[in-house]
Give the backbone structure.
Amino acid sequence: MSRTSGRSEIMIGLLDSPVAVLHPDLAGANLRKIPGRRGGTSVQASSAACLHGTFIAGILCAKRGSPAPAICPDCTLLVRPIFIETTLTSGQAPSATPDTLAAAIVETIEAGARVLNLSVALAQPSMRGERALEEALDYAVSRGVIPVAAVGNQGTLGSTAITRHRVVPAPEPLLDAPTLLCPHY
């Protein structure tokens, strides 16, 4: 972060949830929505999905000096929502099916992403869905795209098709799961 703030031609795919693009810390950020079944702009700014997507967008491209670290504020963020924006109960985290994530990975790469941020929890695992996800990650590798996977969503560490993939390094959790959702976002 001390050496660079990134460049607009470097595109990072945010496969997450809609983002509250009007958040003041995201003003001036290079955000581009990728069409999909779900819109890229948050409708319910207080929904768990929108809070998560906006927080991750903030970590990546908020203004420097904002509460989020703003790792690469000058890069272009390709927002491809995969979570449904609904009201969740009792701490339930947003999740996506492996098929939904696989399709979003391919669409985001075809839109120009060079890095994929995968801070996702998977629901409804199936052999077919896991296979589709492995193929999408293989496609990413074949195109020189770097997948970055988070661990610890939903307060657990576990194995998924993402973390088992041959090019995804085995990460160590940096934060406890309850601190992942910043109340500021």
In short: Helices lie at 48-61, 98-110, 127-142, 161-164. Residues 38-42, 173-185 have pLDDT under 50 and may be disordered.
